[in-house]
Amino acid sequence: MKKYKRTLLTLVLLIIVSTCLAQRYRRRTFSSEEYRSYRNFPNWSNAEGFKHDTFTFVRVAYDSYGQGSWHIDFPDSDLNFSLRLQQLTSMKVNPNPIVHRLSDEEIFEYPFLYMIEPGGIHLHDSEIEGLRRYCFNGGFLMVDDFWGDWEWNVFHEQIKRVFPNRQIEELELSHEIFHNVYDLKEKPQIPSIGWAYDGNTWEVRKGPSAREVHFRAIKDDDGRIMVLICHNTDLGDGWEREDENKEYFELFSVKKAYPMGINIVTYAMTH
After folding, report:
1. Would residue 157 be called left, alpha or beta, if left means φ above 0 and alpha means ψ between -120 and 50 degrees?
2. What is the residue range of 251's domain?
3. Which of 37-51, 129-143, 178-192, 196-210 comes out lowest in average pLDDT?
4. Both 123 and 145 in a single domain?
5. Quick one: DSSP state of residue 115?
6. Does pLDDT of 16 surpass 50?
7. Distance between CA 93 and CA 55 in Å, rounded?
């Protein structure tokens, strides 16, 4: 009986903790100072006059069913990318990335949103409307790290709820987004850190449809990319895992993940 009560108490505590964490993320509160100190991440400050003119990395939180999660690679990839963007460009960057849901009015304060692993995503009506308004008002959404036909079909169904009358088009390598800062010679396919163990640059377990990398776009009436969809590639792992394997870092983080990420943000901030 005592064991049963202890088990029940443990379960109740787990539910309470999980609920509190979920409410925290729904309130969009994220402070990276303590985590940065714990992991010894570099910090920096911007001049007071640039306080409201810095680039802030904003990750999208969403609900999902069975496949994928919005917090994959979080927060290391966001912190690392913000650092490299600060180091490698003249852009003023906020060292503290944040999290928002698409239904939050605060997203309209930021020109760039990042969504990861949407292979099981479900968007609520308020999020559909929020993303549509955001994009048509000049915002930019980058979608990353989902593989194969099954995950594509799930995401496609949801994004078509947002843009039912917009075509999703494959970007040619000649598009400026591959060349505006770093001149990329191919569409970059960045594997997960699992490459260090199996040598595969694509997610084999997701089937043969995961082999070929795609960069697809949804554009506005002026031809501006509103949504960039990075399919069968994982830029986020290239940012997060940069310090775990020297060869992975040199081949994928340095040559592909960071250059492509910087090109994408530059495009988002200048169009």
Report:
1. alpha
2. 32-270
3. 37-51
4. yes
5. E
6. no
7. 5
* Count of the separate structural domains present in the chain: 2
The distance from CA 59 to its chain's CA centroid, rounded to whole angstroms, is: 6
**Residue 258, pLDDT above cutoff 70:** yes
Q: How far apart are CA 249 and CA 257, in angstroms?
A: 9
Q: How many CB atoms lie within 10 A of CB 242?
A: 24
* Shared domain check, 137 and 26: no
Q: Which two tokens stand for residue 183?
A: 């001149």
Q: Where are the alpha helices (DSSP H) in 30-147?
A: 33-39, 76-88, 125-136
C-alpha 46, offset from chain centre: 24
pLDDT, mean of residues 30-44? 66
Rounded Cα distance between 116 and 36, Å, is 21
Q: Would you tell me how many other CB atoms lie within 10 Å of the CB of residue 8?
A: 10
Core vs surface per residue 62-92: b (16+ CB within 10 A) or e: bebeeebbbebbbbbbbbbbbbbbbeeeeeb
Give yes or no: residues 165 and 175 share one domain.
Answer: yes
Query: What is d(CA 93, CA 129) in angstroms, rounded to the nearest whole number?
Result: 29
Residue 103 class from Cβ within 10 Å (0-12 exposed, 13-18 middle, 19+ buried)?
Answer: middle
- Going by pLDDT thresholds of 50, 70 and 90, the confidence category of residue 48 is confident
84 and 188 fall within a common domain: yes
Q: What is the pLDDT of residue 32?
A: 59
